[in-house]
Amino acid sequence: MPIKEIGLVSFRNHDTINLEFCPNINVIWGKNGSGKTTILEAIHSLSIGRSFRTNRKKELLKDDMEYFSVTGKFQTADKVQEIQINQTKDGARRILIDGNKLESVKELIGLNPVVLLSPEEQIITKGTPQDQRNYFNKLFSIVSNQYFTILSDYNRILKQRNKLLDDFNIINEAQTELEIWNERISEIGQKLWKKRIDFFKKYGLELKNTVKDFEDSGFTFSCELVTKIIKSEKEYIEILEKRQNKDIYLGRTTFGPHTDKINFIFNKKNIKQYGSQGEHKLALLLIKLAEVKLIRKVTQKDPIILLDDLFAKLDDSRSKQAMAMIDNDLQTIITTTELKIVEDRGVKIDKSNNCSFYLG
Ligand SMILES: Nc1ncnc2c1ncn2[C@@H]1O[C@H](COP(=O)(O)OP(=O)(O)OP(=O)(O)O)[C@@H](O)[C@H]1O
Ligand SMILES: [Mg+2]
After folding, report:
1. Ligand 1, from 8, 36, 43, 116: best to mutate by most atoms within 8 Å of Cβ?
2. Any idea which architecture 1-113+301-360 has in CATH?
3. Listed residue (16, 45, 33, 30) closest to 306, CA to CA
4. Does the beta carbon of 32 lie inside 6 Å of ligand 1?
5. What is the pLDDT of residues 236-249, one digit of tens each?
6. What CATH number does the domain located at 123-300 have?
């Protein structure tokens, strides 16, 4: 859903700033530190209630100010919807849609999906298994509220089971309690696995289609979910019981969807271990193009594309690939230090439906 306007008050380095976006390409340009990435961060926050740069909410508030506010107007099928995030110095936060306070961030996620391509996102191919799981958990939560609910329940139950394991002492009560948690976690864990495997298959298909579009480039790229296929809750519980001593020893649960791994395979090798810098960048682009396709297919919504500094330091062939991210039907917001950098790559700023914004 395109964003029509954004307004920031005391958000990072911005005192107050208001931008009116165009329906297609928007280029935000200005020198280093002028607050370009901060605008993308604000749009991302309006989309899922979280920054992509930090988990520390206090970091977002402009130095010495009492509160910040981010307001965005999004064009939905039949009206303009206003989303606002207000946060005070102590981290207390309210999210409002058309003036109504949300009970939970769950109501926000998936309303206005964004797809972000930024240097930070490179952890999807370079980071830990946890980073990879986080990526897919986030994506699947955006396309499915049900996935988000199941994931939140699983994480809560996992935390409680881990706490019990950590405090475990060999008395019968703890043993009985553990049996109860085994039942709970196996039920929800199996649900989560089912959904994850299902969405992962869908995502894999979109990735395959994306790679096909690059066919003449002479490489192969795919992803695989390394997981355990469980046939029944009974089997799940048996595995938990078998591992019980180990889990007690370690003070955490060593079996379940939170231990899944995702491998990205570039030219038959795991990119994490073997990929060159350029291959990592190309892989991220493909991953993101597939993300756009999955969101469009499952939600029937057009995501907003956020490209942070994408065109800096790209050679010509890579830049042609990067241009694939700019689909004429989608709203795209690009940051760059020099307008010329994006113009040289073929972005036509003067075209109707395109805009540029200079941050001093
Ligand atoms: N809480 C805060 N209060 C005040 N200033 C902040 C806060 N957080 C970050 N800043 C400053 O905001 C500025 C803008 O950062 P941002 O990353 O948005 O810049 P940018 O235009 O994307 O720069 P670059 O071209 O280098 O990527 C930085 O100088 C940073 O130090
Ligand atoms: Mg930046």
Report:
1. 36
2. 3-Layer(aba) Sandwich (3.40)
3. 45
4. yes
5. 999 999 999 899 98
6. 1.20.1050.90
